[in-house]
Amino acid sequence: MRRFGLLLFLVLSPVAFGHGGVVEEDDLCVIKIGYLRAHFKIYVPAERQHQEFCEDIPVRGDSVFVMEYQHDGLSTAEIDFRIIRNVTGKGNFARLSDIEAIADLDAITIRYEPATVVPDVYTLLQSFEEDGEYIGIISARQPDTQVVYTAVFPFEVGYTGLGYWPWIIAAVFALQSIYWFMSRRARQSTNTLLLLAAAALFTPYSIADADESWASDSGFFTVTFRSELQPLTINRIHSWILHVEDSNGNPITNAEITVNGGMPEHNHGLPTAPQVIATNKDGDYKVEGMRFHMRGYWEIRIQIDVGDRHDSVMIPLDL
Amino acid sequence: MNSATQRIRPWMVVAIAAITLLLTYEAWLRFAPPADWSDEELSQLASLWIGNLPDLPPDTSNAVADNPAAAAFGQQLFFDARLSANGMISCSTCHQPIRHFTDGLPKGIALGESRRNTPSIVGTAYSPWLYWDGRKDSQWAQALAPLEDPNEHGSSRLHVLSIIASVSDYRQAYQELFGAAPNLMVQEEVDRAFANIGKAIAAYERLLLPGAARFDQYVEHVLAGGDHLHQELFSKEEIRGLGLFIGEARCTECHNGPLLTNNEFHNTGPLSAPGELPDRGRIDGVREVLADPFNCLGLFNDDPEPSCAELRYVRTGVELIAATRTPSLRNLKNTAPFQRKGQTATLTAVLDHYNKAPLAMIGHNETTELNLRGWELRALEAFLHTLGAPIAADEKWLHPPEKGGKGVRSNLDGENHGD
User: Fold this and answer.
1) Interface of A with B (CB under 8 A)
2) Residues B124 and B239 in one domain
């Protein structure tokens, strides 16, 4: 019981204290650099394969730090990354002010990656040769305002000062794994249910032929299409001709057309970004850059904007 | 008597019956002869059959793509180590004909170590994108990059063109195909002539196409209405593996069509290679191909009205983080080790990875757990080994050209007089 109490305390503690700029939120490890946020994780691929660590690294060796940006601001910011030995004497409670008080930062720096702009996702490989306490310092300079935001996160390598920590961590991890396992199971079964429901709802569509027309969601427009590629097959880039009419059968000639699509069952979009490249006075629009890369059920969504009429139409395809 | 009835409780009977049923069911799954293919499955099989490989699409960006003299010239260049900085490296150093134009190494080794696993050239004429990250959009543009990569040929376009100028055969072949030799003082002429070198190599590479494998013979047999249990052609285990391949294992979501690839980019969550950062893949490749002066929209496309649909309507965005191009599954025996960095040595390990579908280190793993049983994975692996076949090209293209042989106009032996 007492151990369980301790466990509970430890499970809650990251939220209670936070290791500086890195916090766990809803099962997700997040780094906050000013108002800029990124999904933060550390891997030790050789030892622990795909296992993610939020802050503390269990073993020495090659560690991969990953920041997946949740904010576009990080894609254009100049980011620098420094790792120092934690000589503040404050362990996990070290803050930016403690670091600013250090006279010679370079003397205790074990890794400095100078400021660079790295779009989409930031990664850094650091080989730790010694167990111990470290602090990561990440700065992001905004290109427009030149404002610099800094995140500081103390962490340990090899979990020093052990006591019965390993047991507790193992227990926490086991609990976490059970939780993950169960939540994953739960998610999977809902997925299966959703798929079954979807299968029940969608009777299979044959490939829509040229004469079939599709009414837009709000009924403003009627759309027909003709594929340049006949029959429609996978892995071939080709164009479509869309024909757009209003509900009275008059051609719509000046519409802004956006083509999107994907496979709802596989949760992905089109492999290309098709665009309208030509139009005529009969209400025909040539869409270039169509390609499908899997067999199965696809949905093509066509957004049609004319003046104040905004509507979209979905064309189902079975390839 | 009394004690015996006490020991056997109803729940025990139910439990034993349930276990027996389960075991019987498992054994039936595993050992019963595979059922005949359904119509849907037959249509899937037909879609993978090499007999349904469409004709080679024309490469309008390369005026000499289908010119036999260009292919012969390209073959000479492909095997010629003089194009490299140290005179030791040719395209065939990594793309070895006997290994299905790969090298059997995790990552290519030439002057230094390449960034990724050496992909096969066979069938790449069908792909809109080249390289694991698709940073090139034609065979000829791809052929240029290794020449100037410091870890590969480590050469330069001027060095390559000086070799062409100094070897009389090459000078003659170049002029017959592309016209006057370039003025090496004019950058655009240098670039154009360099592109021409790539176009000759591509004319050769276009000839390297996959042949019919045992799998294709089996499909041909069942499509013609033959017995699906044709044991001399395909074992029960291979049939089970094929059934999983087109079904539960969901392989054909990406490995589809007769080349068993959709040539698209997917993040399948591989572990990073030892000592390396996770591979960023297509997210960087798409930026590189858009900026490449030798791309479809560049100055050196021979098509006066290029469509360049693949490049113009290319998809960008964060889904491309860590995505790499689906490789063909034909000839896996010769193309090991596997994955983008060659970090996975065996097919068993690759299948185990897909079975578990771990979270990706960067980006999102598009695949989901398969939860296949051990014997199912072994059946899949057995099936994958039926996809090997010799290359469907004339034998003369599969080794270095013979000196003074067909396609070589004059003596290669006298070439060094001018050097």
Assistant:
1) 41, 43, 45-46, 49-50, 52, 62, 64, 66, 68, 119-121, 123-125, 188, 234-235, 237-239, 266, 268-275, 288-289, 291, 293-296
2) no
Is B172 within a domain? yes
pTM, whole model, 2 decimals?
0.84
- For residue B412, the distance in angstroms to the closest alpha carbon of chain A comes to 42
Collect all residues with Cβ–Cβ distance below 8 Å to A297 and sequence separation of at least 6: A202, A204, A205, A263, A264, A265, A316, A317, A318, A319
User: How near does any CA of chain A get to the CA of B68, in Å?
Assistant: 27
pLDDT in tens, A147-202: 999 999 999 999 654 545 566 778 888 888 888 877 776 555 545 444 444 443 33
Class of the domain covering A214-318: mainly beta
Of B44, B274, B283, the CB nearest to A120: B283
The CB density around residue A181, as the number of other CB atoms within 10 Å, is 10
- How far is Cα of residue B43 from the mean position of the Cα atoms in its chain? 24
Same fold, A2-179 and A214-318: yes
**Domain residue limits, chain A:** 2-179, 214-318
CATH class of the domain defined by A2-179? mainly beta
CA distance B241 to chain A (A): 20
Instruction: Find the domain containing B169 and state its range.
Output: 68-209+392-418
Q: Are residues B249 and B379 in the same domain?
A: yes
Closest A-chain CA to B253: A294
Q: According to the model, what pLDDT value does residue A186 have? A: 56
Q: Is B293 inside a domain boundary?
A: no
Rounded CA separation B416/B419 (Å)? 5
Same structural domain, B174 and B94 = yes
CB contact B402 to A (< 8 Å): no
Tens-place pLDDT, residues A196-245: 444 433 333 334 455 688 999 999 999 999 999 988 989 999 999 999 99
Task: Give start and end residues of each alpha helix (H) in B32-167.
Answer: 39-48, 68-78, 91-94, 139-148, 157-166
| Min Cα separation B367/chain A (Å) | 9
Interface membership of B56 toward A (CB under 8 Å): no
Which residues from B are below 8 Å from A123, CB to CB?
A: 277-278, 280, 362
| Pair of tokens at residue A299 | 């949905």
Give average pLDDT by consecutive 10-residue segment, chain B, 419 residues: 67 94 89 92 97 96 98 98 97 96 96 96 97 98 98 97 97 98 96 98 98 97 94 94 96 96 96 96 97 98 96 93 96 91 94 96 94 96 96 96 54 37
Same-domain check for residues B243 and B166: no
Taking one residue from A and the other from B, the number of pairs with CB-CB distance under 8 angstroms is: 106
Distance spanning both ends of chain B, measured CA to CA: 105
User: How big is chain A, counted in residues?
Assistant: 319
